[in-house]
Fold these 3 entries.
Entry 1:
Amino acid sequence: MVTQIGDQYTAGKIIETEAYRADGDKACHAYNNQRTKRTEVMFWQGGTAYVYLCYGIHHLFNIVTGPKENAQAVLIRAIIPADNLPCMLERRNFTTHKPQLTAGPGVMSKALGIQRVHTGMDLCQPDSIIWVEDRGEIIKPESITASPRVGIDYAEECVSWPWRFRLL
């Protein structure tokens, strides 16, 4: 995960995600294909940024993953800092590196400089200021664990779906 916000380049290895889809997923903002001003971007082409405000303070970064008109997205929940740790520390007002720096979707977005203004951005464009970069690391399937998503107690039977993915 890489950002070039202003003159600040930052990057980190994605280590935790959650998946959401409109079709049948009661935890999805666009459940049953509900289109609102906030969720409209989820119906755009895969590779688009979907950033929304949670609790009025946390910018949560998602990548739209479905084809156009098929609302699906992956929430990026956590990274391990890889490049420009000093910038991430400054953005989070930390003096030393701790797991809390980028472990959680709101604090991760803050460390990378991602805000709601970035929603709708095409992450696949060569001039995008946010992108996912392949650094050639091979992840073995046994290094990935799946479990239920976090903070969706309202989602009835969807609560137990194992759509949270973490690197061990």
Note: The longest strand covers residues 8-21.
Entry 2:
Amino acid sequence: MRVALTVAYDGRAYHGFQRQSSTSGELTIQAVLELALQNLYGRALQVVGSGRTDRGVHAFGQVVHVDLPSHIPAERLPYALFPYLPEDVMVVRAQAVPPDFHARYGARSKTYVYQVRLRPFLYPWEKGLAYATQASFDPMLIRQASQLLTGRHDFYAFQKQGSSAQTTVRTIDFLDFVESGDSWWFWIRGDGFLYRMVRIMIGVLLSIGRGELMLEMLHQVLSGTVRANFAAYALPPDGLYLYAVHYDTLTPFDPGPLPPRPAGYKLEA
């Protein structure tokens, strides 16, 4: 029985999602999930994730698939796995899926959100969950830059230098932010992301909003008239969350009203 698990986690204690080598000693979300499944079923089982998340990145709706014995109904797995998982990792939904469902190759798009706190500090219990800044921003400039980034472009400039991606053309079909108290939540949905692309994009948007980077420069880079790399603008992983993975055959899990969604965002797009 192939099962799709939707997993939420606080990534502060983990070296990303993907399992590291057996000798690295780095704790990952994949390793924790596989250990929980092994403890529940009494044998080694491998989960396949929709993709990597970096060290310190969080998730509301990471999706994995795993082939399991059928003696536990799929819908009972969140409860069955709960005692075997640490407090910062939770399976929030489990569904039986067709044998050809693939968490990675079947993903049509992904949504990420990034939380920016508009104050110079974070409370101790918030550290690692948001990016704090006391800078002043022009929201209109940020929205204009967001419109430039939306669409199909060569995002060569928005990757960590030395990345091995075979193609850097991606489509961003939604990019906006919503204000909630002293937080800005940036929302971005696309058909794929380069290494650190989301963190670089949000960093570029904030730099434009501060007046440190000109809107015209972004336009020139996206149009190909200027060759540049924006990797230096990457924000830390602290405020980044994988919100949802979108499939043609699987409805995304809805985590509820938080974080607040901007107008126009549809979970089932």
Note: Residues 2-96 form a domain with the Alpha-Beta Plaits fold (CATH 3.30.70.580).
Entry 3:
Amino acid sequence: MALFTWSEKYSVKVAEIDEQHKKLIGLVNRLNDAMRQGQGKQALSGVLKELVQYAANHFATEERIMLANGYPDYQEHKTKHDKITKTVLDVQAQYEQGQTNITFELMDYLANWVDKHILGTDMRYSSFLVAKGVR
């Protein structure tokens, strides 16, 4: 059962970023499905690793586009990226060391990341970048 389904409400109107957000939704859904199906640590670890790699690549893409277009709230946005990255890396390290499990609490955090970060923080740059001609 998917936590999220892509819809236009998630679109920031920048194709490269929208495609990456679709991948994020897919990764969160895969992790949720693996957890609910009781898949082993290897399967969960693999999806979590993909999520960490995704975050690094996606945040670098957003930050590159923001910097190239003079987005005025770049530093604030980057600070939020840094906080999310630290949290995801901490969870991954704790999971790999057997100190935590993939839980409904973690899935809630990831669901909030998708909803609040895309619909809140990312939507703030959308109109700015579109006005600059970024599509």
Note: The chain is about 75% helix and 0% strand.
